[in-house]
Specification:
single chain, binds ligand LLP, TIM Barrel, 26% strand, Lyase, Ornithine Decarboxylase, Chain A, domain 1, nine-stranded mixed β-sheet, 30% helix, globular
């Protein structure tokens, strides 16, 4: 079967883009545009790839889905069916995961400024682990567990002082991050000393997350090294056992044809090799190892379908091809200069003949989804498919310009169903108070 390179989605019998075995044009006929489509097989396949890669090299490990990448009930359910736990980072993500039926014990609660209400909610719900980010949260946990007689199992989020976005990983002397307890400046050590003495709070281990959309495996190795070395130090000096080591997420995915992210197994092998070697070297008891990818679980499973509207050619300058979405439903290009590729859903194999800008419809010149899209001749009414939009698009979407958010559809096995309904104008004013 022909597939659309480099994103490897098959074509339908009619030669159109197909997602989950459903012709993209049938999808938009039924559900309209803009439409976020999640390919179920790919989503499940990504979960399995991680789970199997980890199981192959380390008996005592678990994969968590960083739900912030796409926190809707359906993704929580699917990843959980595939054996993953769920990382949540707010009361809203906690609520969504519980609403989806995920047992609280399978939830790991992150967040750099959890409110008192959120911590209480997490305790009441019985979340499996709190990943404690700062002393404010330790105070809250101490107070609330004493008051409610609840218990909390925690990891401490550490900042290992690693800068992953540079071409070559470097260890910085100091850490300028709002997240976590710095290892280098001694905050991490003090936090461990305090946490181990807490009565109703049990310190289970350590966590770090060094960045996102990372292609270079070296910073991950350095991160694992820093964590295990720190675990050895607190064992030696504070008699604290690190039962669990959570290495965070961050593996990059392919957005552009030229992107070559490492395979999931290569990432898993790299970090496990380091953990194993370092644990042996320090004669530590091997901890349970967690990883918590988000983007690489759901990112390439997502495709956004748009209808092309206005086309404006400025001779000698640029052609703007406007679509019926934009930064309100995918803020990544405007926020991070993120780049994407697109094809026409009806003619995915047509040779590109022009470079155009794919513009969103928000009232800002910066609302351009793709500055340089290579497309064949396009006409108003054509359907544009933008790849790798499964992560940090819908979850970061808003209602700027009062555009209703698109529907999210799950496509698999030749059928598609709505997993988040399209918003209507009535949703936009639902909380407005008319004076
Ligand atoms: N664990 C923690 C504690 C995190 O903060 C994150 C992402 C992850 C795991 C998952 O990382 P991933 O595997 O998805 O790279 N909105 C940005 C990405 C922000 C990532 C935030 N933290 C974007 O659109 O690129």
């Amino acid at each position: 079967m022909r597939t659309i390179p480099p994103h490897a989605f098959p074509a339908s019998p009619r030669g159109h883009l197909a997602l989950g075995g459903v012709d993209a044009l049938d999808l938009i006929r039924e559900f309209g545009t803009p439409l976020h489509v999640l390919d179920e097989d790919r989503l499940r396949g990504n979960c399995r790839e991680y789970r199997e890669a980890l199981a192959r090299v380390y008996g005592n490990g678990r994969v968590l889905f960083a739900s912030k990448a796409c926190c809707i009930a359906a993704t929580c359910q699917i990843v959980h069916q595939e054996g993953l736990g769920v990382d949540i980072a707010s009361g809203g993500e906690l609520y969504t995961a519980l609403h989806a039926g995920i047992p609280a014990a399978d939830l790991v609660f992150h967040g750099s400024n959890k409110t008192r209400d959120e911590v209480e909610y997490g305790l009441r719900a019985g979340v499996g682990r709190f990943v404690v980010d700062n002393t404010y949260e330790l105070d809250l946990l101490e107070e609330l567990t004493a008051r409610t007689a609840a218990r909390a199992e925690i990891l401490l989020r550490l900042t290992p002082g690693i800068e992953p976005h540079t071409h070559k990983a470097i260890q910085t002397g100091g850490v300028d991050s709002k997240f976590g307890f710095g290892i280098l400046e001694g905050a991490a050590y003090q936090a461990v000393a305090r946490a181990r003495a807490m009565e109703r709070v049990r310190l289970r281990g350590l966590h770090a997350h060094i960045g996102s959309q990372v292609f270079d495996l070296e910073p991950f190795r350095l991160e694992a090294t820093a964590l295990v070395d720190f675990a050895a130090r607190i064992r030696d000096e504070l008699d604290v056992t690190t039962e669990e080591l959570n290495l965070g997420g961050g593996l990059g995915i392919r957005y552009l044809s030229t992107d070559e992210p490492p395979a999931k197994a290569a990432y898993v092998n790299a970090v496990i090799d380091v953990v194993r070697a370092r644990v042996d070297q320090h004669r530590l008891t091997p901890p349970k190892v967690f990883i918590e990818p988000g983007r690489s679980i759901v990112g390439d499973a997502g495709v956004t379908l748009y209808t092309i509207g206005a086309i404006k050619t400025i001779p000698g300058v640029r052609t703007y091809v406007s679509v019926d979405g934009g930064m309100y439903e995918n803020p990544r290009p405007a926020l991070y200069g993120a780049r994407y590729e697109a094809v026409l859903a009806e003619r995915p194999f047509a040779e590109p003949t022009q470079t155009v800008a794919v513009a969103g419809r928000c009232c800002e010149s910066g609302d351009v989804l793709i500055w340089e899209a290579y497309l064949p001749d396009v006409h108003s009414g054509d359907v544009l498919a933008m790849f790798s939009t499964g992560a940090y698009t819908y979850s970061m979407a808003g209602n700027y310009n009062r555009f209703p958010r698109p529907a999210v559809v799950l496509a698999g096995g030749g059928r598609a169903r709505v997993v988040v309904e399209r918003e209507g104008y009535d949703d936009l004013v639902r909380k407005d108070v008319v004076l």
